[in-house]
Design goal:
The protein has about 200 residues and is of the alpha+beta class. It has seven helices and eight strands. α2 packs parallel to α3.
């Protein structure tokens, strides 16, 4: 007569080796690995795109601004001069080689920068483009793309930056930091559609 504990042991061995158990254990391991992978990926995205990354990038841009305040003020004054010379402009962009103006209902026109404009621009290392838009009157944007998105911006508002947090939230900018009266840093716009809408 076979003892019941021997039968129980035999059944346990069969269960441990059964295809159903192997499949269940395999699925649990795959699910755990997938979950760990997602945690790592989202953690890396948060480090690169999240508020922690913003703080580090803001520190870099604030240092750059502190060392070049006169250059930023000079470029802002030049942009205000361009706005006064083109009162119907919807958008004015300034890069090292060109200043481009787009007026309502007309194609964008570009002219080479003067040696003075190029020197003023070159005094702003890391700036990818300086922008004025009619929909943001009194504001000059100094945009920094870096090697990859996210894209950060130093803004000068001729009125003040008191309402900058509300402005940034309304336009979809993720974060802000005040620099000095009239100047602030805007974090990236994580929503691609809202970013396109802001800069078109």
């Amino acid at each position: 007569m076979v003892r019941s504990d021997a039968l129980d042991e035999s059944q346990r061995r069969r269960w441990r080796r059964s295809p159903g158990r192997v499949l269940l254990v395999t699925l649990m391991i795959v699910a755990a690995l997938f979950l760990a992978w997602r945690v790592v990926v989202f953690g890396m995205l948060e480090v690169h795109f999240g508020s922690g990354y913003d703080a580090r990038r803001f520190d870099e841009l604030e240092t750059r601004f502190d060392h070049g305040q006169a250059a930023f003020a000079k470029a802002d004054a030049r942009m205000r001069g361009l706005v006064a010379a083109h009162p119907k402009a919807e958008r004015i962009t300034w890069i090292p080689a060109l200043i481009c103006v787009r007026e309502a209902g007309r194609a964008e026109t570009c002219e080479p920068t003067t040696p003075e404009d190029k020197a003023a621009y070159d005094a702003l290392p890391g700036t990818d483009v300086i922008v004025h838009q009619a929909k943001d009157p009194g504001r000059t944007f100094f945009r920094f793309y870096g090697n990859d998105p996210p894209r950060y911006t130093i803004i000068h508002a001729s009125d003040s930056t008191d309402g900058m947090a509300a402005y940034a939230e309304d336009r979809g900018f993720r974060s802000t930091r005040s620099l000095k009266p009239g100047w602030a840093i805007l974090g990236p716009i994580p929503d691609v559609d809202r970013e396109d809408d802001q800069w078109q």
